Amino acid sequence: xxxxxxxxxxxxxxxxxxxxxxxxxxxxxxxxxxxxxxxxxxxxxxxxxxxxxxxxxxxxxxxxxxxxxxxxxxxxxxxxxxxxxxxxxxxxxxxxxxxxxxxxxxxxxxxxxxxxxxxxxxxxxxxxxxxxxxxxxxxxxxxxxxxxxxxxxxxxxxxxxxxxxxxxxxxxxxxxxxxxxxxxxxxxxxxxxxxxxxxxxxxxxxxxxxxxxxxxxxxxxxxxxxxxxxxxxxxxxxxxxxxxxxxxxxxxxxxxxxxxxxxxxxxxxxxxxxxxxxxxxxxxxxxxxxxxxxxxxxxxxxxxxxxxxxxxxxxxxxxxxxxxxxxxxxxxxxxxxxxxxxxxxxxxxxxxxxxxxxxxxxxxxxxxxxxxxxxxxxxxxxxxxxxxxxxxxxxxxxxxxxxxxxxxxxxxxxxxxxxxxxxxxxxxxxxxxxxxxxxxxxxxxxxxxxxxxxxxxxxxxxxxxxxxxxxx
Amino acid sequence: xxxxxxxxxxxxxxxxxxxxxxxxxxxxxxxxxxxxxxxxxxxxxxxxxxxxxxxxxxxxxxxxxxxxxxxxxxxxxxxxxxxxxxxxxxxxxxxxxxxxxxxxxxxxxxxxxxxxxxxxxxxxxxxxxxxxxxxxxxxxxxxxxxxxxxxxxxxxxxxxxxxxxxxxxxxxxxxxxxxxxxxxxxxxxxxxxxxxxxxxxxxxxxxxxxxxxxxxxxxxxxxxxxxxxxxxxxxxxxxxxxxxxxxxxxxxxxxxxxxxxxxxxxxxxxxxxxxxxxxxxxxxxxxxxxxxxxxxxxxxxxxxxxxxxxxxxxxxxxxxxxxxxxxxxxxxxxxxxxxxxxxxxxxxxxxxxxxxxxxxxxxxxxxxxxxxxxxxxxxxxxxxxxxxxxxxxxxxxxxxxxxxxxxxxxxxxxxxxxxxxxxxxxxxxxxxxxxxxxxxxxxxxxxxxxxxxxxxxxxxxxxxxxxxxxxxxxxxxxxxxxxxxxxxxxxxxxxxx
Lengths: 472, 497
Prior knowledge:
By secondary structure, chain A is mainly alpha-helical.
């Protein structure tokens, strides 16, 4: 194996270097300087993210186990950006007394998980895929129970690890069937036909992955885990872990499982309707904002499936574009929730009453984020949703499209409830004015700029579309 | 710079400038200044347009400009106007201009109020100038969403309920529009890269069986905001809870997006289905017209009176559009403009009266003519225009509509027309009832004598609207000619089928 081939793993090398560097760096910090690792981790990761954008070689290595091409690099970069935002938002939480002694550990867990994400996206073999998937999940289970003094956090950790163990088992069961019928685990060598065993194997495989994306009916863990985990971990779960699983799903369905298209189109048709509708209907009743965002993210996953169903270049592009938009919108919403939780310890919707009077800028940011999630122009979410709808219409599923647009209206209702709380409802004791720390504000401003710009700046979408066309 | 771009740029810049304003005085000055410039440039646009037409330029749309936006999907920022759009833009400019003055005394969160109001207006302008369905839809939603905050924060009565109901119903309409627009986009027989451009789509054919699916989607989608029965229920609640300027803008302009969209998108692009299905919607709009008028008669709240009469009058717009001929179309557009001016005048006056009497229930008021002669006379003029007195705009519009409707010789259309015409009588009943109870008779309360007389900004608002009503009423020909010329494209497509 030449050096050239090893360099293909640039994203992964950079992350591993960051992990090692952070470990060594932490040894040099004295007890009082512990919080310095927050800044160093953020800077390190910013460098890693930037490195990802440099022009890169594409190709395959490790006997086809590892694949990299422009579209996978783009996916990794999108997820890197969101991890960077999550890192910037976690500073104030890590500085609290309980976490002060385990700041670096948090970043190590997160970085390992990101390494898993990268390997999973680049996998050219189901073993590599499975390895990446586990590496993505297990550190997050530890991070989910980070608030060790809260019973809910421990519960979240256990729930996450148990449900992902369960889903892994299902996924492996499916993989073993696929292996049995095709005689290989390598994407290049697997030949699919509409064999019943393969269909069954695919359905099990899909169910396993559906746990990660929290597609109905595999969503039951989502709300509890999202509520119990520290909010920063929740935002990671809802954006990075979900986004990675969606990316892999798109790549595999469009390329590997192409011969089973008829099967997976039916599967996705059904699950998309249920995911959107059930996510939306449950979100309406939520009072706790973390649960609220959990159900909203389930509904959003349903919308994303709309782009997958056509299996076309347009569909693939709209999925990737929507995830990019979703990263900014969802992380902006979480950014506000985190800031308020850190300052006032409040998470209920009625605590947000009258927020605009005391914290106008934060309320505006929240409003923009929610409007973008709801798909209101001229924000990026509007473009994202419209392109997803275009992809469905392209494949001629007008009934599905109709159900989807009705769901978009339902989702607007509950997003407006939060806007109503902040802008219209009055409160005796609104959350007083406060300023969060610099990194949180930078992250939030970055998200808002993303929400405002990505839609108008059409080259973003055109670039993604071009890459998707090239990958066919 | 293209005058249409500056029609979007001026409100946008005004919004940006407002963000940096601090005192109430600055906010008012910027808002009023920006919208005055907008009104002036709309008049300039009208002049230039008539100039071009007089010069023999008979292109379907003028002042076109196109910027590629999402080339791979065929989305581009295409703008251009025909006579109908010019008329609607002028209407919008007058209403927003007067709306600013009618809300001169807003003192709660005044900056946010004017920003939301002008964002709404930006959406409306964008809607009227765009020739690309995607851009048109974008501006449509942009015009709807500020309503939620405007009603929710500054409204009165059950404002939260009304705001939510209005927003969700209108967004439900726009959800149907998404399906319709995408359906039209994918089923038209264009080779190669598809396009959202209305004019290009208009030159291509869409299979009739597909038209049958998408025509109801587009027509109802736009019909919701045009108060099509049974999707009109947002209108009375929304209008009565909204603050003055928002009611003006919403009833005066936003409801017209419905009629405009039905005419220039639904019927223009899907003519065969329009022929086949017009009878269903004719029944619905017939119900709108009569039901709206009858419901008005029993209302006692001034805003509800005006809201229900708007349902009736806007029903007439859709009714005329469904008659599918040139005369009726001309009438429809005239009615949109006439009703826009009238209803804006009514809502402005209701706001002004309410700020003095603190009630909107007509049975609790009386004799206002003696204490507030200026505002009362304005109210009477608006009322007379509404019931179709010759010399005012309402007469011209309704006359044209019914002449157009009578061009159909079959029994169904005749009956529908006769039923719709009878709404004029009902209109006279409720207008005269309000005038009688509200303005005539003895002064109900001694404190009424202390009412401040009409202030300068109130006079500007009412007088500008009355001028509009008079101009259309006395010299309607230039306007109806301008509209008629632009209808050729739509009517040709209908006949060709």
